[in-house]
Design a protein that fits this description.
15 strands, Structural Genomics Hypothetical 15.5 Kd Protein In mrcA-pckA Intergenic Region, Chain A, single chain, alpha+beta, nine-stranded mixed sheet, Pseudouridine synthase, four-stranded antiparallel sheet, 31% strand
Length: 312
């Protein structure tokens, strides 16, 4: 069940270096407001009492008021969704998330998510896990990081409030180490490359993200493991966790992820119908003991099938 509430936030613009869009400025300096939320079609921005476009440059000293709709989820239904468990103890659960599983309820996906599976697995009391209780309102109990719906692989869930706080801090300060495996289109000219390009929501398509000089910092490393005829197998490390980061960065250099219809091209006879992106490993400190741990998810069958076809 959803509960929509209107909220407002006011701030006075400080010193501004160069030209920066007002939505990017708000997302950068207003705590708790993401760029995607600021850019939402229902979010209204006023400057000195007058509504302005989100693309308008911000000026020092302006009084900015943001009004948006906060969507909360309550009464998360317990659903018996099968999970592939890699590791579990009293503090955390580590799974190999299956493709097409959404991590938490959101508009368009109110149920059938990992959170629904967690409530079924641990009971209704699991809903009140976060350090400050906010996860209960947002229907994200235990969730400290996310994977896209069509991205499979390693994902960790906190089982206690203290674990939630400790794990969240690791993702926030980037002390985790995350590797992915991907099949991308085209012939790679470079064996290795670092893509350091900020990412923001696309102005042309609100479902997409794009390289944006006013966006949030995003850094991706890739190494070519093997080049096939018309696609390549890459090992990828990300140092930031922006939405669609790998997909945006690879598409930006002309090598979109195979099966990615959002950032690549529509499927044809050479493409599988699913995204070839998999979270291969995650290195974190145990939230209770501090021990450094590495979790790995095996290569999915969809990768093996496509690679086998390329070798025959």
């Amino acid at each position: 069940m959803t509960d929509n509430r209107t909220k407002t936030l006011s701030l006075i613009a400080g010193p501004v270096e160069g030209k920066i869009r007002i939505d990017a400025y708000i997302a950068r300096y207003a705590e708790g407001l993401s760029r995607s939320l600021v850019s939402d079609k229902d979010t209204v921005i006023t400057v000195d009492g007058k509504q302005v476009k989100k693309s308008r440059p911000v000026k020092e000293g302006e009084t900015i008021i943001v009004t948006w709709t906060d969507v909360s989820f309550t009464g998360v239904e317990a659903q018996p969704i099968e999970l592939s468990v890699l590791y579990e103890d009293e503090s955390m659960l580590v799974i190999d998330k299956q493709q097409s599983l959404v991590v938490h309820p959101a508009p368009g996906n109110p149920d059938g998510t990992l959170v629904n599976a967690l409530v079924y697995r641990y009971g209704a009391e699991f809903a009140d896990l976060s350090e400050d209780g906010q996860d209960m309102e947002l229907a994200r109990p235990g969730i400290v990081h996310r994977l896209d719906k069509e991205t499979s692989g390693v994902l960790v869930v906190a089982k206690t409030r203290s674990a939630h706080a400790a794990l969240s801090e690791q993702f926030k300060n980037r002390s985790t180490c995350k590797y992915y495996i991907a099949l991308v289109k085209g012939v790679m000219e470079r064996k290795r490359q670092t893509i350091d390009a900020p990412i923001g929501r696309s102005e042309k398509n609100r479902k997409k993200f794009a390289i944006d000089r006013n966006g949030k910092s995003a850094v991706t490393d890739y190494t070519v493991l093997r080049q096939f005829g018309h696609f390549a197998l890459l090992r990828i490390r990300i140092y930031t966790g922006r939405t669609h980061q790998i997909r945006v960065h690879m598409a930006s250099i002309g090598h979109s992820v195979v099966g990615d219809e959002l950032y690549g091209h529509k499927s044809n006879s050479d493409d599988p119908c699913s995204l070839m992106l998999h979270a291969l490993s995650l290195e974190i400190d145990h939230p209770l003991t501090g021990q450094r741990l590495i979790f790995r998810a095996p290569l999915p069958d969809r990768f093996k099938k496509l690679i086998k076809q390329a070798l025959t």
